[in-house]
Specification:
alpha/beta, 20 helices, globular
Length: 474
């Protein structure tokens, strides 16, 4: 006999499309627009799986799911929602849903998910508190997948390695995993490896006994002790010196550590979440990072995309940060549609953090209620200027670039920066050069091409490749 799917959605068109797709896949379907009908069918013992929207006219599905799980704990439930936020994904997981599908989704994805749910059965419910202020924002496809992974990881204590450029929100993700995970009643302790002097890292992590070294006038607890029973977030793990890596590996292998100057091993029970903006595999090849430690930390890899790869999320991020600014006492401002488009064209080397800082400046200095594209251009240009004393009008472009790169390399005192520097510098410089040429010629591409000394077709191709809006010649 074919399996029966109970479908609940108040949109009749969606019910029709999903019913047809599930029927073609060989399932029997009973569909309804209400939570009450869905609950009645479940109580009667009908259905082998449930597919439901969150918002139903008579009751929210998140209020119904716990009752379903209590009555029929092995009935798999798949949640659909057009409110595509991380909290929706986490709420679905916390209430015991098998999976969460953000609308719109591919019908093949739904069919595959239903098949897996029927094959593997339901996940056990886990009721945890929900907050609605988690600042991870975005409805792009790549962010939806991250939400789903985070929602699953909150149900485990697995070690997670978060990779991403600076400003992408690595610590926010780590906090989400802690705040909605099994260890939420414990402490969340964050430590930045790049911000601690090399000679103090072991004491910072494992603590020290009185007299362990000059200046150790009393015993001090380390971050492992502070995070006991909770989560320890090791940010910029790629900057950890090799000798400290060896001690960390021993802790992960044996589940115990010894304070600096101590002799008695201490058992530890913490969840480790690590993060880096560097290519750890390249550091391994250079002999700067232990391969065995990498495999211990990289149990579940999670890559956060740079903002330039999810520019469609910028309008949501703008609304989020403007709302936060009002709560902090800054003026209530909005951005024009042209200003939003300008933000979507920018490369954002500083990612979400850079966007937030720009918006805070604009809100603070702009007088008009609606911030224009011209204001965005002006503030972005000002923010991109070198700091006083760094370069002046007498500094040639070559000297300025050389000084900048010298500072860049200086940040990697004992190692080289990640490979691909030529393309990264070109990717940052060329869009700025193209936009400046267009601005100087009022958007006239022929004149801009002449100014740059390139063919007009070449200019158009570069604009398209760098995803810069093409302005019609004046």
């Amino acid at each position: 006999m074919s399996k029966t799917i109970l479908l609940a959605d108040d949109d009749s068109a969606i019910r029709t499309v999903l019913t047809q797709a599930l029927s073609r896949a060989g399932y029997s379907v009973r569909s309804t627009a209400t939570a009450s009908a869905l609950w009645r069918w479940v109580a009667e013992g009908q259905g082998d799986a449930v597919v439901t929207d969150v918002v139903l006219p008579d009751e929210n599905a998140f209020d119904v799911i716990p009752r379903i799980k209590k009555l029929r704990p092995n009935l798999p439930i798949i949640v659909m929602s057009a409110k595509n936020t991380i909290m929706t994904a986490i709420a679905a997981a916390e209430r015991g849903a098998y999976d969460y599908l953000p609308k719109p989704f591919d019908l093949h994805q739904l069919i595959n998910t239903v098949g897996k749910a029927l094959e593997h059965g339901s996940k056990p419910p886990s009721a945890k508190p929900i907050t609605e202020d988690l600042p991870i924002v975005g409805r792009s496809a790549v962010m939806q997948e991250i939400y789903r992974v985070i929602a699953r990881l909150t149900q485990t204590d697995l070690t997670v390695m978060i990779a991403g450029e600076s400003g992408t929100g690595k610590e926010l993700v780590a906090r989400a995993l802690h705040d909605h995970g099994r260890r939420r009643k414990g402490s969340f302790v964050a430590v930045n490896m790049a911000a601690i002097p090399r000679e103090l890292i072991e004491s910072e992590l494992f603590g020290h006994e009185k007299g362990a070294f000059t200046g150790a006038t009393s015993r001090a607890a380390g971050r492992f002790e502070q995070a006991e029973g909770g989560t320890l977030f090791l940010d910029e793990i790629g900057d950890m010196p090799l000798e400290a890596q060896t001690r960390l590996l021993r802790v992960l292998q044996q589940g115990e550590y010894t304070a600096v100057g101590g002799s008695t091993p201490v058992k530890t029970n913490v969840r480790i979440i690590a993060a880096t903006h560097r290519d750890l595999r390249q550091l391994i090849a250079q002999g700067l990072f232990r391969e065995d430690l990498f495999f211990r930390l990289n149990v579940v890899p999670l890559r956060l995309p740079p903002l330039r790869e999810r520019a469609e999320d910028i309008p949501d991020l703008v609304r989020h940060f403007l709302t936060r600014a009002v709560k902090e006492g800054l003026p209530d401002r909005d951005l024009s549609s042209e200003a939003i488009e300008r933000l979507k064209q920018y490369r954002w080397p500083g990612n979400v953090r850079e966007l937030e800082n720009l918006l805070r400046r604009l809100v603070a200095i702009e007088i008009d209620d609606t911030i224009s594209a011209a204001s965005v251009d002006r503030e972005m240009a000002t923010a991109s200027l070198p700091q006083p004393g760094y370069a002046d009008s007498s500094t040639s472009l070559g000297e300025f670039t050389e000084n900048y790169l010298a500072r860049y390399f200086a940040g990697f005192s004992e190692s080289l920066p990640p490979a691909g520097l030529y393309e990264r510098v070109l990717a940052e410089v060329e869009p700025a050069l193209l936009r400046a040429a267009l601005a100087a010629t009022s958007g006239n591409q022929s004149r801009a091409a002449e100014l740059l000394g390139v063919n007009r077709n070449t200019l158009r191709a570069r604009l398209q490749e760098r995803k810069i809006a093409i302005i019609k010649d004046l």
